[in-house]
Amino acid sequence: MKHSLDLALWYPRGCNFDFIGYTDADYAVFLVGRKSTLGMAHFLGSCLVSWATKKQHSVAMSIAEPEYVAATSCHARLLWIWQQLKDFSIDTGCIPIICDNTSAINIVKNPCQHKRTKHIDIRHHFLRGNVRKGLISMNFCATDKQIADIFTKALSREQFERNRLELGMIKTT
Amino acid sequence: MSMMGERNFFLGLQIRQTSNGTMIHQQRYVKELIKQLRMETAKPIDTPISASTRLVMDDGSPSVEEKSYRSMIGSLLYLTASRPDIVFSVGLCACFQSKPKKNTFEGYKNGF
Fold it and tell me: Taking Cα atoms as reference points, which of A106, A96, A102, A107 lies closest to residue A74?
C-alpha cells in the first residue's frame, strides 16, 4: 500500500448521468464452504458511485447461478440509486447491467422453468419482472472488459492496474 | 450556519476540488495506519493479493492474536471508503476472523 499511497478516486466535472451497473461473480473461489463471491460496481457517467463485494449465501452448482444471483443483487442496488435519482428528477431511462456470462443473461430473458434453474429461489427472479418492464436491460461484455472483476478475484498485476484505472482511481500527483 | 470555505477534510477523507473535478483520498489515514502497525519498512507489493493465494481455515500454522487481527481488518475496512481496489482482499481476510492463522496473517500483512 505504501507505493499506492497517492491513489485517489477521481470524479470529473460535467460528466453525464448515464447510469450503468457492472456485475460479476466468481465460482467457488472461497475454499471453505465453496461459496461464490459476487462483485458489483455502479457508475454515473464515468464516476464510480457504489461498489460492493460479498460472499454469497448458497453454494452454486454452475457458474451461471452465482452470476444470476449477482445480477439480482446489483439490480436491487441499482433500483435504490434509481429511486434517489428520480427524487432529484433525473431520468436515467433503461439502465444497462453489464454481465460477462451469457447463460445468466439468458435465464433473465427466458422465463421458462428449466430443470437447471428451478432451485433458484423466487427472490432472485424479481430481476426478470423489471427487465420485462424495460427498466433494466441485461448486456453482455467480455470478461476482460468486466470492471467488477476486481471485486471477485485476485488479479494479475496488469489486469489489476487496468481495472483500477477503469474504476476511476488515479494518482494524485 | 457559517461558511467555512471549501471543504477539504471530512471524516478522514481528504477532498481536493479543482476546476476539472473532485478527488477523494485517504493518504493521511494510510500513513497513520502504516505507522501504527509499524510497517514502514515492509516490502511494497504490486497487488493486494496474489492470484495464486489460496486461503484455508486451518493450514497447520500457528495462530495469531485475534484482537489485533480484527483491529487491522477494521482499520482497512474504513480505508475501503476511498480504495475500491482493496475491497476484495480485505473481505477475503475478514472471513478468517474467528481463528486467524499465521499464514493468513502474513499474507494479509503483505497487502501493505
Answer: A96
Its pTM stands at: 0.78
Contact A8, B25 (CB under 8 A): yes
CA distance A146 to A150: 9
Q: CB pairs below 8 Å between A and B: how many?
A: 107
Interface predicted TM-score of the whole assembly (ipTM), two decimals: 0.75
Q: Note down the domain range covering A138.
A: 2-171
Chain A residue with minimum CA distance to B51: A154
Number of domains in chain A: 1
User: From first to last of its 173 residues, what are the pLDDT tens digits of chain A?
Assistant: 556 677 888 888 877 778 888 888 888 666 677 788 888 888 888 888 888 888 888 787 788 888 888 888 888 888 898 888 889 888 888 888 888 888 888 888 877 767 667 667 666 777 888 888 888 888 888 877 788 888 888 888 888 888 888 888 888 76
Grid cell at residue A103 = 447463460
Q: Which of B21, B46, B111 sits opposite A157 (nearest CB)?
A: B46
A153 close to B (CB below 8 A): yes
Q: Are A98 and A146 in contact (CB under 8 A)?
A: yes
Rounded to the nearest angstrom, the gap between the alpha carbon of residue A11 and the centroid of all alpha carbons in its chain is 20
Domain with A160 in it: what CATH number? 3.30.420.10
Contacts of A55 in chain B (CB under 8 A): 91, 95
Residue of chain A whose Cα is closest to the Cα of B40: A2
Q: Are strands A95-99 and A19-26 parallel, antiparallel or unpaired?
A: parallel
Chain B residues whose beta carbon lies within 8 Å of the beta carbon of residue A4: 85
